[in-house]
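Quick note —
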Amino acid sequence: MVASLRRRSAGLGSLSASGLLVGLALAMGLDAGTGSAARAADAATVQEILDGKELYIDSKPARVKDKAASPQQVSTGSSRAQLAFEGVPPAA
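Predicted structure written out below.
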């Protein structure tokens, strides 16, 4: 799974490597703070890479506008990234 969020969001801001890993961990777990089951996103598009160039999709270097689809994995080194998630319904 790419990541899990309750809504599509271009306004998530920048994700740190640890924040991204938490999002990935939520893909099959519980939605933070609500106790309800989270729904995984179908895909994520790279919108911005910050603090370096260390962003990878399945261990291959990624660039802005690259897309990761389930079950691909997105990872960072010391960089941060902003991702737009697809396939997640809007928040109720």
